Amino acid sequence: MNTPSFSRRNFLKVTVSAAGGLMVGFTLPTPLQAAMGEAGEINAWLTIDPDNIVSIVTPQTEMGQGAWTSIPMMVAEELDVPWENVRSVRADANRHVNNAELYTTTSTGGSTTVSRRHPYMMQAGASARERLRVAASNRWGVPLDKVVAKQGYLSTEHEEQGMLQGTYGEFAADAVAVTLEKEPTIKAYGDWWLLGTDVKRVDVASKTNGSAVYPIDVTVEGMVYAAVQACPVPEGKLVSFDFEAVKGMPGVIAAVELKQVKDVPAFTDLRSAVAIVAESWFQAKNALAVMPIVWDFGRGATISFESQTAEALSLLAAPGTLVKDEDGNIGKGMDKGVNHDAVPDLLAASTKLVTGEVYSRPFEAHATMMPPCAVADVKADRVDVWTFTQDIGRSLNEVADQLGRDTKAVFLHQTQLGGGFGGGYNMDVHRQAAAISAAVGKPVKVIRSREEDIAQDSQRPPVWGTYKAALGEDGLPVALLTHFVGEEKMPAFAQRGVANLPYLIPNRRHENSLVQNHVPIGYHRAPGANSNGFIVEQMVDELAQAGGWDPLEWRIKLTEGMEPWQRVLQAMKAKSGWTTDMGDGEGMGCAVVESHGTIAGCVATVSVSRRGQIFVDKLQYFINSGYVINPLNAREQAESSAIWELSHAMFGGLQVRDGRIVNTNFDSYPMMRMPDTPPEIEVNLEMSEDQWWGGLGEPTGPPTPPAVANALFYATGTRVRTTPLSKAEL
Predict the structure, then answer these.
(1) Which residue pairs, CB below 8 angstroms and at least 24 apart, start in 306-310?
(2) Kindly report the CA angle at 16 between 11 and 21, in degrees rounded to 5?
(3) Is residue 574 classed as helix, strand or coil in its secondary structure?
(4) Which of 91, 77, 70, 108 is nearest to 24 (CA)?
(5) 288 alpha carbon, distance to own chain's centre
(6) Rounded distance between C-alpha atoms, residue 498 and residue 594, angstroms
(7) pLDDT in tens, 113-135
(8) What tens digit of pLDDT does each residue of 460-492 get?
(9) Structural domains of the chain, ranges and CATH numbers in brackets
(10) What does pTM read for this prediction?
């Protein structure tokens, strides 16, 4: 393996303890095995060196969500070691893949790092603590129940020698050999000493001083660069290219054809493309831009967003496929002999029928801060890869698959991720780098141009939706029919948050229709809930207004008895200064959406200028995820998710013409800048603390656009039913 260097961020350090134990800081992409030295590896999750420094493995990728802090916190809580003694170390992907998925999973997504994985991560810390206690008990010759493990020290009262004490590091080697008869029980909430407190994220310092390492920073001796272009119409294929026309350009080394195996590749499969390899990336990009290329555009060449919208409107005008019946059975109603005519009959007989217009959201791109990038060094006996990924284990397997290599010979090195939230799952850039390196016999860095990134991204799918409701004497709905149209590749996206609508409305019916599409579809932050929340929570406001209800009181009334929802909604009422009457040009709107097991409410305050310019003045959030282990990071993630979703809602929206995406850079696909950001974002943590855990990386995104749109209605009297909001005529 060539020794990598790190251009423009070369501030990394390693320190060797007096006893020879190697301590690795969180900024160095070195596997755990290199961190061990003479340290005692108590289990696969942690090592303790003789100087009492604890290195805790982080299998998940750090992309700004705080994984490198939350995982060590969970382990350190049970181990009971001072936070200043903790180091976060990247997991070794090769070790994980080739040892029966040693770390259970290296997947980073779905807001699951804490919510679903805390039991076994905390168990690792508890197990290590108990093995240290057994080691001390054996050495000191005292009963185990007399040994106390606390803050990195083991202690006991000995009959003859008095108080005995030693550091964890002094007993680590003995603890390695200990086998427990049974694993200890992890702590219950209320017994925590570290979890539940504000802890600063360990990745912030490196990101602010420039030492953080991303794939784009990695340099390997002898490395060349590659720019890649796939068919501008997704699913299209390469027919031919004329390398002779560009091979004499400065720095150009070779052209490599990338061949896809499947007719319709998944977003992790290699797509049909061509790469130019050169001495610098700009040389490669410039040659690729002028090289003659012939494409077979395939079935998508005639598709546009307008044609899809026309298809969606046609589908909405007819009955859709039944997803949920009035008994609340999702996907099973057709098999139960239920009278599915009940909802249409109630609607037909209603003297107060509310018919919604069509809402929609378009395709949207990840547009991550760092364009996708990967470095691959393919040799006869070994493959090394640094890549833009949210799952180091899966990406390692994909590289091995691409090259036909044994996974034991593939080494994937975890770096930080320059964005993500689904973008790091949904691409083949590491396959491209591996294939090109194998073809040219040199280490290769592949960087996607911003245009290629957006054009070839796995996009957030569009959605269209409408509804009909019958209102009773009290102004509340007695029957509700919803009909959404979504993308065929991921039909569940058109159901999240609407098929399982939380509001206690009798006689519910949800129908779904699908449009065919050639554009790759993938996961974006809070998938499904993000787009559907925009529709559902404006629909709710319309129903409340039609029935003469205050929209917040309507939500409170129709979630009675549902403690997690009531906790959020009552906090919104008590703390937000809620009102629907702020005067002309100003408005306050609310929305509440469940995503990843967390209920998140948003109250947005907006103002609209005489020329129709929108200003989001304040966002207030009320979040219930059951528990929170780091309130500081929870608030930061709430702000991050809110700004991410608000950016897409205000300015996003991909334009598809002749099968291709045409707005592929920030001049035509703008993202929110600092002056656009709301000057005040308030986050309230309203935890039930009642034996359930939700995620916190995504849930504040979905309620943000509908809360803003509802506020715009109260400010202007205009209902905005599609995004981007910035293009609304107010």
Answers:
(1) 308/462, 308/515, 308/517, 308/656, 309/360, 309/464
(2) 130
(3) helix
(4) 91
(5) 32
(6) 10
(7) 888 888 888 999 999 999 999 99
(8) 999 999 999 999 999 999 999 999 999 888 777
(9) 5-209 (3.30.365.10), 215-299+372-447 (3.30.365.10), 306-363+460-727 (3.30.365.10)
(10) 0.91
